[in-house]
Structures are given as structure tokens and as C-alpha cells.
Amino acid sequence: MATAGRASPGDAGRRAQTLAASPDGDAFAPLTAVAAGGWRALAERAIEPNGYYLPAWELAVNAFAGGRTGASALVAWSDAAPDGPARMIGLMPVVPMSRAYKIPLPALVSAHPYGTLCTPLLDRDMAQTAAARLLRQARESGAHALILRDVSLDGAAMRTLDEVLRQQDLRPRVLQSRLRACLDARRDAEELLREALGAKKLKELRRQRHRLADSGTVRFELARTPAEVTAALETFLRLEASGWKGKRGTALIQDDGDAAFIRRAAPALAETSQCEIVTLRAGETPVAAGLVLRHQDRAFFFKLGIDERFAKYSPGVQLTLDLTRHLCADPAIATADSTAGADHPMINPIWRGRFAIGDVLIPLRTNDPVVPLIHAALALRSAIRDFARRAVHFVRDRHRSKQRS
Known about the structure:
Strands 1, 2, 3, 4, 5, 6, 7, 8, 9, 10, 11, 12 and 13 form a 13-stranded mixed beta sheet that branches. This protein is α+β, with helices and mostly antiparallel strands. Helix content is 41%, strand content 23%.
């Protein structure tokens, strides 16, 4: 990835081991070298929240999660002030393009933190300075482009980056975008649910809940302390593995690294009231559980697990209704990100808010001939993946048709 007259990312990383750990200068460094205290303080001042780039979460992912370890970071510091030391003002975890996409071209890609949001952390008081310094660090690493995956396209961080890029006569390209469900938690929950689902659907869900109560009193439980979260996490992991994710082999507990990451991250975030686990029980039997991160005034609905023996009572929907009421009743929470895919069949009918999320290609130099090559390679990769996906669906549909005939 190196260019003439610039240090390679490996050289920059070795040189930055101490830079990222102390405010002596901006750095391109291994993620593990980033000063945890400065990172936590930056997260509190971030112009836009991202629960998946909190240090306790991302460092656990980086240490254990399969295919997500060994990330680096672009780190920006403020200038030293007469009345105090410099502070961390920007952080963007990244991996090489060759690792993210298996394409050996000189670009850096936002490191995927297991949750589907990679919005970088920018200090709200120095956001443009932070963005400019992160871009400079990427450029000095030898990269020709930055690829931001799963960023909020209309959020404060992306708006700041757009302004800095405009000042530098650089034009980002949106590679793909989609709408994602979110919750306006400032509204009255019952009014919101009536508008979203309608009286008839809510009546049916109440009927299902009464039927669920035949198995025992239905109650919504909230785990918040590290000890509570540690215990509730095991219930969540068992539920997730008992359903379709377990059948596909994609449940967290089925991978040693994924299980180790979540078992470290969840209790660690609970220590700072940034993680809670919600559980729905019928008597003593857990029928659904979900993990929620909290950062500033936003919640992030990470994952949901259900006991499919109770599927006819819609346990996942029942839990989400209770979670909606819980978040709307919490004055500290203004919005909640479903972190779900587009057109998600469960969450989309309930959380009717939408925001745009997508992947953005950022050139780091004006009129760089390498950037169109990067763009073309990504477009070709996307086309091949789309073709393969359609082919798989076609074969599955034909197989189902033959089984029915």
C-alpha cells in the first residue's frame, strides 16, 4: 500500500505505537495501542453516537471475534493547549482493503465491529479538525482511498466529513445505501405502537400474550449491572442458538471467538451503564431475550433470540413491544437504532422511523487515477455477489416448487 516518499502502513503502525498511547501526535496505529482513557473520553464527546465503537465493545471484537481481529486505527489529537494537555479528538478503526474485500488495492476500510454501524468518533467541539486529521493520517499511511462501511449517510459525522472533503476539493461516492428502522423514543410508546400496528394487530398480540400466560406469568426483565448482565447473557446465548441461527451455525455461542468477545464486552459495558439485556419470561421459562447497547442518548438493538417452541405467540414481537415501552419511558434515550437489515420483517412494522445507511468511498487525493480502479473493483465484486445471491435464491425456489408438486 505504500507510495513513493511515504511510510508503509506497517512502518507507520510501528512508529505510532507510542503516538496512539499518548498525545504527542496523530497516528495510524494498531487498535490495541490506542489509549483507552482517551478513547472513552472521546466517546463521551462524540458528535454522533456509535455504541459499536465504544472501546469495551470494539476492543473485545478485535481481540476475539472471528475474522474481525487485528484492526488498526486512525487517531487524531488536538494541539496542546496552554491550560491543559492535548486530547484525543478523532478515532476510526480500519483494516486494509485486501483484508476487508480480498482486493489488493491501496485503500483502508472501516473495521466492522460486529454491529452494523461504522460511524467514526469525532469530537463535537473539534469535529472538522478531527475529520481533517483522520483523512491526513489515512493519506500518510499510503492509502489512496477510505471506504466507510455502514455509516449514517445523513448523520453529523458524515456531514462533517463531507464539509472537510469539499474544502479539500474531494468528492466522496456513495457505493450503496438502504433505509434502516429506528425508534423515536421521545414519543409516547402507546401512541407510537397504535400508529405503527393499528388496533386490530395490537388486539391480536394481546390475545397471543394471554395465551402465552397459560405457561406462566409473563414478565419483562431488565439486566443492567455487570452481574445481572453476565447471567442474562447466557440465557440470551442459549435462546439464540436454539433457533434458526443455531441451525445455520451462525449463533454467537457456536464460535469460540464470538462467544469470548460478547462475554467480555457485555459485562464491561454494563459497568458504565452502556449495556442491558432484556428478557421475556413465561413463568420461569425465558421465551425471548435481546441485547441493547447505549451510547449518549441513543440505544442500539444488537440481537434477539427466541424460544421457537413459543413461536405462535410471537415472543420476539412481544419482547420488542416491551422494549419499545421501556426505551420511550427512559428520558436519557432519544432514539434507538434497530441495527437491522433493510426490510426486516419483525422490526420494520413496529419501529416506523427510517434513516439512510450506506457505504462511502472517499478519495484522499485530487484527480487520483487509482480511485476509479478501486471503485470499479468494488462495483464488480458487488455485481458478482448479487448474481450469486440471485442464483442461490433461484435454485432454492425451484427446489421448493418440486417438493410441493
